[in-house]
Amino acid sequence: MTDDPDHTWRRIDSELRQKVPADMYEIWLAPLRLREIAGDQVVVEAPRELRAWVAERFARVLQASAVAVLGPDAVVRVRPGDDGPPPAAGRRGGAERRDEGRSDAPPEDDTSDTGLNPKYTFEQFVIGDANRFAHAAALAVAELPGQAYNPLFIYGPPGVGKTHLLHSVGNYVRAAGDGLNVRYTTVETFTNQFIAAINSRSVDRFKGRFRRNDVLLIDDVQFLASKVKTEEEFFHTFNALYEAGSQLVLTSDRLPRDLEALEDRLRERFEAGLVTAITAPDLPTRLTVLRKRVQHDRIDLDDEQVLTLIAERVPTNVRALEGALIRVVAYASLTGRPLSADLAAEVLGDLYPARPAPGTGRSAGQTIDLIVHLVADAYGFSEEEILSHDRRPALASARQVAMYLAREHTGETLPAIGRRFGGRNHTTVMHACRRTAQRLAGDPELFEAVRRLTDAVRRDPGADRRG
Question: Fewer CB within a 10 Å sphere, N or C end of the chain?
Answer without folding.
Answer: N
